[in-house]
Design goal:
Elements: H1 2-24, H2 31-39, H3 43-49, H4 54-60, H5 63-69, E1 71-80, E2 83-90, E3 97-101, E4 105-108, E5 117-118, E6 126-130, E7 133-138, E8 143-147, E9 157-164, E10 169-176, E11 181-189, E12 199-208, E13 216-218, E14 221-228, E15 234-240, E16 246-249, E17 259-263, E18 266-270, E19 278-283, E20 288-292, H6 300-303, E21 313-317, E22 323-326, E23 329-330, E24 334-340, E25 345-351, E26 372-373, E27 375-382, H7 388-397, E28 401-403
Parallel strand pairs: 3-25
Antiparallel strand pairs: 1-2, 1-27, 2-4, 5-6, 6-7, 7-8, 8-28, 9-10, 10-11, 11-12, 12-14, 13-14, 14-15, 15-16, 17-18, 18-19, 19-20, 21-22, 22-24, 23-26, 24-25
Helix pairs in contact: 1-5
Amino acid sequence: MIKIGLLQNMEQKKTYKKRKTQLKSSTSFPVDLTTEILLRLPEKSVAKFSCVSKLWSSIITDPYFIYLFQTQSLQICFQKDDNLFFSSIPQNSNRSYFSTSLFFDQTKLPENCSHWSSTESVHGLICFHKSDKLIAWNPSTRQFLVLPNLLPSSNDTILFLGYDPIERKHKVMCIPRNRTFHKCQVLTLGSDLISWLWRRVGTNQAHSTSVFTYGRCVEGVIYYLAYSSRRSHMVMMSFDVRSEKFHMIELPCNFTGRRLVTYKGRLACCNRNIERGFWILEDAQRHKWSSQHFLSPFGTGCRDLMSVGNGLNLKGFTHGGEFIYAPDRFSRSFYILLCDPVRNTCRRFEFKGLADNGSVNSGVGDVDRSMYALHTFPNHIDSPKAFATLCNQAKRTGSGQIVNPSILD
């Protein structure tokens, strides 16, 4: 996969240089300078500037520019009434110890989208699922795209989001919950060859899921824990996003993990108590796993930032190896810790509460005691044009409804 990625980047560079040469003849302002300026702007500004001219739009939508522009962050969000509040935390900071306040942006949710469940963040997109309503969201542009309903519609389903790095396409895969099944439904996003229709795909491996089943997409493959109907025990299932083939992976005999995470680009499974260690998938074809054990990540720096009974749970890891701790739910205030056990560093991000007027950044005197579910999305790729292909095809085919098309809410 690394070799393929390098070849893709080389091809993108060649195409980018050729396109840049063509653009030089059509403008007196240096394209290199324009590109360097755009690469230094926030993603929201870049998204707006794509409307300035055809030249700027051509630069911003170029695949190699998108590759250069992409940055990773920890995306967090929660819902209050019909509003979605979201914020980004930079990852892999060089600062060893600091505490800062969190500030949230706000956007309207599509109609009748409350009490939703979500997928992980996959290559810039997040999918929400509520009853038979399926929604794709790009936090960088604040856009929602309402997807076609499942056939037949069902409230009792589990949604997965995957990305094929070869063909650069997102796919949504949906399976039944709490029952054995032999087929799933798949929807390809942003494809000109498929008119946004759900397709039934055979699993070849009868298995069942539970209410705790949650997927992770790693290098073009979706993984999730399930129960094998034939073997009567828990297994790891994989779904290749490109070939749409299922495979069953045996778990270690003393396997106790329940939560899937990505650790330094690899699939891992762990308990919330990280001191019990976790398992890393080394070779899916050979069913090979390795165990990893850590001492408490709360060293001297982190211990000073913590309090007893804080209710923090392990949510995953950044690609740089930081442990992400956050609450599942909160009432008025909370904080998030990013701890690096190797460098013994810790970063704390604090949110001080909800105000009565709905503003989330002035919670000094608020009295709102409602509990809110906090959703965390590690290693989110911030890309201003992640919706370009999706929204364009939705407009052409009329198969998807674009909500909040403007980033200026």
